Each structure stands twice: as structure tokens, then as C-alpha cells.
Amino acid sequence: MNMKKPGAVRTLAIVLVILACAAGLIMKKRAKLAGAPKYGLSPTVVHVAKAEKDNLDVGLSYLGVVEPFNRADVASRVAASVINVPVDEGDLVKKGGLLVELDEKDILKDIASLAAQVKRAKAELSANNATLAALEKSVDYWKREAQRDMTLARDGAIAESLAEATVNKADEIEGKRDAARRKSTALAEAVESLSRKKARAEAQLDYYRLRSPFDGIVTRRLVDPGDLASPGRALVTVEDRSRMMVVFDVPQQDLDRVREGLPVSFSIGDKPIKARISHIYPALSPSRMARAEVYIDGPDRKNMTIGAYVPATVRIAHLENVTLIPSDCMVNREDGKPYVYAVRDGHIHTMQVKELGNNGNMTAVSGISPGEQVVINTFLGWATLADGMPVEVAR
Predict the structure, then answer these.
(1) Looking at domain 104-204, which CATH architecture does it have?
(2) Which of 69, 110, 149, 183 fits a 20 to 30 Å CA distance from 177?
């Protein structure tokens, strides 16, 4: 029994040493962990804007296109060869100026043929009218002779057969007179018909010389001498740039707020331009859009490029002394109500606001005070933010 005690003491001492070493390692590990950074507890960095008190022009934005005040695609109305195009793209033309000349040989032949037919018909009519006049006199003469012979026959002065022959002769002459009348009527109608055809053909001579419908500039020349023009084919485009237009389509749902005379603002290059809606078409397009036109006069039109896209804003209201925040600060939730995330004491506070109007960049709201810091939306959206979470404002 006494021999075993020293061994037991040594074993106990070894166990105690091992436990002491283990305790030291655990305490050292805990100290190391305590000094390590605590992931997930750092505040989220956000960008903010300060709500400000100011005035705001409330507007609707549209994408406009620059167009000339007037454009004409001058097209052929006949099939003929092009023999002359005296204008080129960029040329200035006056109203009535020659643009394209077509080969008129065929129409000139038709006019000459019709003129000859009219001349022949008139000659036949004249000759027939002379015959008719002679027959009219003959009818009068033989009617008198027939009446006289009938009287003599009744009195027994001449034979009845002689009187009947005179009556027959009078009827024959009257028949020839009626035929001549019908022929004169037909010839007169033929002369009138041929004359109308000739007049139409002469009027069509203008179709072979295409002229500018107004003062303008040639923007497209689509044919050269030797080409074949066909009915409906555009040969030259002329534009009237004495006045320019910015045109845009207004959706049906905006028409109760957009009307003629409202202010419109846009920029040409770096120059802002203010104008007014000049005209809105009274009918909708198949896509349920109404075309709006803004006329631009004066020197500003010279810097406008046809076909260029121009973002335009129509001012529909003016708000005085309202609280403004960037439109990117507006939060739209599933309930459809607008909110903003305000930053107070380093934490997010969700605040419901009322939108009073916007111009695309800035929004007027009620429900927050000027000077309030509100979070600006990022490319990650609002999914990373929640009410009450700690945030750090980016400097």
C-alpha cells in the first residue's frame, strides 16, 4: 500500500500540468478571437442627399425628333425616261423651280394626233352644217310645193299622182335634213370630246416637268438622266427649313394634361431652348398617340439637325416653395405608396411621403423637412436596406 502512493502522486501531478497547459491554450485562443474583427456588424455605407426648399417646374418628358416645317417627296405621275435633273442635294430652290424633266415625245405625239382629229371633225362638222342649211331651205321649198300641188289636185287642176310625187319629194328632203341634223349633233359631240382629250393631254405636259412646290432645299436626289420614272415614284425631296419643328408623340393618358400653348424646354447642343407647343393633332395614331409639334423660328433653327433626337420636357405645373429631393431617393413599395429612407443618428428611418410632382430629376414631396438626409438609390436597389439598420454616410 505505501509503495503505491508515490506513483499516484506523480500521475496526479502530470494530469494537473496537462490541465493547466490546456487552460492556458484556451485562454490564449479566446484572447486572440476577442481581438479579431467582428464581421457583419459594420454599418452599411450609403450616399445621401439633403432635402431643400425651392420652386419646381413639374413636367412630362418625351423624346422628340427634329423635322422641317414642310417636306415634299416630289414624285412622277407618268411613266417616262428622265432626261434632265438640273438640281443636286443641298441646292436651294424657289417655288416653281424645275427639279426634273421627263421625256415628253410620246405625249407630244398624242397631242398632235388629237389636234389632227379635232381639225378633221371640225371640217366635217362645217361641211355638214352647210349641207344642213341647204337642206333646211329645200325642205321649206318642197313643203310649199307639196301644199300647192295638193290644193291644185283637189281643184282638179293637176293629176293626183303629180301631187303625190311632190309630197314624196318633200318627205325625202325632210328625211335627208333630219339625217344631216343627227350627223351635225354627232360631229359636234366628237369635236367636244376630242377637244377635251387634247386639253387633258396638254395639261399632262406639266407632269413631264416636275417643279418645287415651295421655297426650300433639295435634300434627296433619287434619279439621274436615263432612269425610268414611274407613277408614284419619288424623284426628289425638297424641305422647307425656314421654320423647324420638334415633334413628339403624346400618349392618350397624358392628353388631359398636355395641350397647345404649354411651355416646352429642350437643348440643342449645349444651348437650352424654350418654346411652346404649337399644334397637337386632333386624332390619335393606331398606337393611341397624338402628334405634338413645336415650331422653332429665328436663329435657333439653324443649329438644328433634321432627324436628330431631342429629349423635351413639357411644363404642366409650377410649384412654389416646396421640399425637393432627387427622384432617385423615392422608394416604391408593394403597397404602392411612396417612401424615403431618411438617415437619423446613423440609422435608417422609413418615412412615408406624398409626391407633389417631379420634373424627371427632382421630386417635390411633403412628409419630410428641409435639411433631412435621404438615401439615394444605388445600382443594388433598395434590397440591402431596412428600417432601423445602422448606416454610415459616404463622404
Answers:
(1) Orthogonal Bundle (1.10)
(2) 149
Fold for the domain defined by 62-69+241-316 = Elongation Factor Tu (Ef-tu); domain 3 (2.40.30)
The rounded mean pLDDT for the chain is 89
User: What architecture is the 46-58+319-393 domain classified under in CATH?
Assistant: Beta Barrel (2.40)
Grid-cell match 424623284, residue found: 235
Calpha distance 148→167 (Å, rounded): 10
pTM of the model: 0.61
At residue 293's C-alpha, the angle toward residues 288 and 296, to 5°, is 165
Chain segment 207-216, per-residue pLDDT in tens:
999 999 999 9
Structure-model confidence comparison of residues 282 and 15, the more confident one:
282
Tell whether the model's pLDDT for residue 281 goes beyond 50: yes
Between CA 75 and CA 222 the distance in angstroms is: 10
